[in-house]
């Protein structure tokens, strides 16, 4: 069998004979006297720096089931092993929710679990930068405990494997998709050799050498269902302690279970700021419609699931199959809802697709737009043009029941202010239900950030201390921005030099202004003919994560006046009044003329429209004035 290992590190140490894998596994086997117990661990998905137990009580944190680990379980369940999944994120939220547990002691949950189960092999998953801190804490604890073989996988270990091995934080790093690789490794780590195909991408350090196995690329034939794995994941309970995103809360099923589901792996595109192509490989692999339907059937009829969230990066790629799936969902009359917050590709949406999307229970989705600047759109290799988005937005107008948001990013490498303004103006033009602006984050494996190696190394060295959130106000538990004094704020951001490249602090202020003006003052659902229900359901759900944000309360109050629910309107007005008393919010409200609105608060629907119209025309005048200046720069014009 061709099992060889090759050099993979930058420092030049080489071992290119895969017998070292066998040698290393034998060494570990004798050292740890391996039993048959395997534990797969999902780390917390929350940011401890801004953790707020009150938000837990309102189910404001993410509680995604450990889908990646469930796929691993399905791949290795045929082995003679006793396998368990520990979702530390779920356990932590549950304990805080039920027992007033001190969240800082979360590692104790793991301690207790491993002491009890005493697994021989522990696999730990980490999917993004914000997980670096908990990942390091988990690995340090497990290595100090020194009773198990530690394997780590997912996005961060894939790109930071060398560093994790160098610090002796684990025995193996498994890169990219894990199913085939973990089977290949278990052939040598356990006494049961199932002759799995050798795969590349299993890394380890042996006798001072960094080794990586060789074999096939580990691209998984992706057509399994996750039914058995749900015996290890109590999906019924997830909805009690958090949410997947505002959609899972909007579904209006307070205590009905939700689940995550996947049809395809990979994406047709290769956007420069995204790592999907590098991580999953070229092309898109799909699961059969039958497998997906049987998984859904099980989740609906055996676990009571009422809402599904698609995890796909390119859900619409297999258009015919997806439409077939949607039609079958309609025929089954399951009366479920679904959403796709991760984003759909606009060019695949036509009228027929939208009809099926709506009729099969979709309550909402996002489309990836990222930028409204023509040159940036080309530069980032987004598979779209502004006209494709315009065409899609036109179709969306006919499907007002579905909540449709656009994803935009601010602060691409070398992005100039006029390009950000193009995005903002385009978001106003498209007039979707929501424009989700986030700040661009350097992510591993994306070509746009190939020169960010030092930044990534510093994140690992600082054990995740300096990792920033992609929504700036999520960095503090009070939901407030902390930026340097010189950054222009409020309307002044429009005075920025069009050619300047705003720094990180300035981008946060631009984000604040775009979000407030675009999604609140200019929201189409707060205008005549709009649907205030949509605004209310989205913002009420989003507010769970920002309980003391006064502008959310203020605009919710206005939306309830439009709905003529004056009691609710008053409640939100009081809430806004209470939290707006701080210097921080008074300054912010004054900057957007919201203080005046608070003082002369509208009493009825007509007054709300009138006052919001006034505000809107004031802001549009400011924006248009600057658009005139920007016209000299932007290739959009
Ligand atoms: C659901 C999701 C989340 C969930 C949490 C998921 C989790 N389990 O932790 C939430 C909503 C919290 C989340 C948040 C973020 N996410 Co996210 N998220 C996803 C999403 C859509 C699905 C993940 C998933 O379940 N995939 C399906 C399973 C089957 O695949 P998998 O998890 O990759 O698992 C496989 C392998 O990774 C590997 N593996 C994983 N773990 C382990 C462990 C071991 C031991 C082994 C051997 C193998 C292994 O084997 C698995 C089976 O093949 C992915 C995109 C995608 N489609 O995958 C993005 C993705 C992971 N997120 C990403 C990012 C950037 C984020 C954010 C930082 C920002 C953002 N813009 O979304 C935030 C920050 C979170 C925060 N706390 O504020 C990026 C990561 C890219 C990168 N290079 O860093 C991705 C890839 C999206 C993208 N296209 O850019 N996310
Ligand atoms: S379309 Fe989305 S998932 Fe696909 S490469 Fe671009 S950003 Fe990534």
Tell me the CATH topology of the largest domain. Rossmann fold
Ligands = cobalamin, iron/sulfur cluster
Q: Percent of residues in beta strands?
A: 5-15%
Shape: globular
How large, in whole angstroms, is the Cα Rg?
25 Å
Structural class: alpha/beta
Number of E-state strands: 16
Please give the order of strands in the largest beta sheet: 1-8-7-6-5-4-2-3
Mean pLDDT: 92
Uncertain runs: 1-5, 7-16
Number of self-contained structural domains: 3
Describe, in plain words, how this protein is organized in 3D.
- By secondary structure, the chain is an alpha/beta fold.
- It folds into three domains: 5-213, Cobalamin-binding domain (Rossmann fold, 3-Layer(aba) Sandwich); 243-364 and 371-396, Transcription Regulator spoIIAA (2-Layer Sandwich); 536-630.
- Bound molecules: cobalamin (B12) and iron/sulfur cluster.
- Residues 42, 45-47, 62, 64, 66-68, 71-72, 123-125, 127-130, 151-155, 174, 177-179, 182, 220, 262, 274-276, 311-313, 342, 443-445, 469-470 line the site of cobalamin.
Annotate the secondary structure layout:
Elements: E1 5-6, H1 19-32, E2 37-42, H2 53-57, H3 67-76, E3 82-87, H4 88-99, H5 107-117, E4 121-125, H6 132-145, E5 149-153, H7 155-166, E6 172-174, H8 179-189, E7 202-206, E8 209-213, H9 235-238, H10 246-250, E9 258-261, E10 264-265, H11 276-280, E11 285-286, H12 289-303, E12 307-310, H13 319-332, E13 337-344, H14 351-359, E14 362-370, H15 374-379, H16 386-396, E15 403-410, H17 417-430, E16 434-439, H18 453-461, H19 504-521, H20 532-543, H21 550-562, H22 566-579, H23 583-591, H24 594-599, H25 605-630
Parallel strand pairs: 2-3, 2-4, 4-5, 5-6, 9-12, 12-13, 13-14, 14-15, 15-16
Antiparallel strand pairs: 1-8, 6-7, 7-8, 10-11
Helix pairs in contact: 3-8, 13-14, 20-21, 21-22, 21-25
């Amino acid at each position: 069998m061709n099992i060889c290992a090759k050099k993979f590190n930058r420092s030049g140490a080489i071992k290119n004979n895969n017998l070292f894998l066998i040698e290393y596994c034998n060494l570990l086997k004798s050292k740890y006297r391996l039993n048959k117990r395997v534990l797969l661990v999902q780390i917390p998905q929350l940011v401890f720096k801004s953790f707020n137990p009150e938000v837990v009580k309102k189910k404001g944190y993410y509680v995604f089931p450990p889908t990646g680990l469930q796929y691993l379980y399905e791949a290795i369940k045929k082995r003679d092993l006793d396998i368990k999944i520990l979702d530390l994120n779920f356990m932590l939220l549950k304990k805080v929710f039920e027992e007033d547990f001190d969240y800082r002691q979360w590692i104790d949950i793991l301690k207790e679990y491993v002491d009890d189960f005493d697994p021989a092999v522990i696999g730990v998953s980490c999917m993004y930068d914000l997980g670096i801190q908990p990942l390091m804490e988990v690995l340090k604890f497990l290595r100090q405990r020194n009773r198990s073989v530690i394997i780590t996988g997912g996005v961060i270990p894939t790109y930071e494997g060398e560093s994790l091995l160098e610090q002796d934080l684990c025995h193996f790093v498994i890169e990219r998709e894990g199913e085939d690789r973990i089977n290949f490794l278990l052939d040598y780590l356990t006494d049961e050799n199932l002759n799995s195909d050798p795969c590349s991408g299993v890394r380890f350090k042996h006798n001072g050498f960094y080794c990586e196995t060789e074999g096939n690329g580990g691209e998984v034939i992706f057509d399994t269902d996750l039914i058995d794995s749900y015996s290890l994941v109590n999906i019924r309970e997830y909805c009690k302690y958090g949410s997947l995103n505002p959609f899972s809360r909007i579904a209006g099923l307070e205590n009905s279970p939700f689940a995550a589901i996947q049809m395809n792996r990979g994406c047709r595109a290769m956007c420069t700021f995204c790592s999907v192509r590098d991580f999953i490989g070229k092309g898109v692999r799909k699961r059969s419609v039958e497998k997906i339907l049987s998984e859904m059937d099980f989740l609906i009829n055996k676990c009571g699931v009422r809402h599904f969230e698609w995890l796909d990066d390119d859900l619409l790629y297999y258009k015919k199959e997806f439409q077939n799936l949607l039609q079958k969902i309609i025929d089954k009359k399951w009366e479920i809802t679904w959403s796709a917050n991760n984003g759909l590709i606009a060019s695949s949406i036509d009228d027929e697709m939208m009809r099926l999307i709506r009729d099969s229970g979709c309550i909402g989705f996002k489309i990836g737009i990222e930028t409204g600047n023509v040159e940036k759109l080309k530069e980032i290799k987004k598979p779209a043009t502004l006209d494709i988005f315009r065409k899609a937005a036109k179709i969306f107008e006919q499907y007002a029941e579905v909540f449709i948001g656009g994803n935009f990013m601010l602060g691409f490498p070398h992005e100039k202010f006029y390009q950000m303004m193009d995005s903002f103006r385009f978001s106003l033009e498209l007039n979707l239900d929501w424009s989700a602006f986030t700040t661009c984050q350097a992510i591993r494996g994306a070509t746009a950030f190939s020169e960010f190696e030092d930044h990534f190394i510093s994140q690992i060295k600082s054990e995740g201390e300096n990792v920033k959130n992609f929504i700036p106000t999520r960095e503090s538990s009070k939901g407030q921005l902390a930026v340097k004094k010189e950054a222009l704020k409020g309307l002044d951001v429009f005075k920025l030099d069009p050619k300047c490249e705003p720094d990180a602090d300035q981008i946060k202020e631009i984000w604040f202004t775009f979000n407030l003006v675009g999604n609140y003052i200019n929201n189409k659902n707060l205008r005549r003919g709009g649907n205030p229900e949509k605004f209310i359901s989205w913002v009420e759900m989003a507010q769970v994560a920002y309980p003391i944000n006064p502008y959310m309360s203020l605009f919710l109050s206005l939306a309830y006046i439009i709905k003529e629910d004056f009691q609710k309107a008053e409640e939100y007005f009081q809430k806004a009044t209470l939290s707006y008393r701080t210097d921080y919010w008074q300054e912010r409200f004054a900057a957007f003329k919201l203080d005046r609105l608070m003082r002369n608060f509208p009493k009825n629907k007509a007054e709300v429209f009138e006052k919001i119209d006034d505000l809107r025309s004031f802001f549009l005048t400011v924006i248009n004035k600057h658009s005139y200046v920007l016209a000299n720069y932007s290739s959009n014009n």
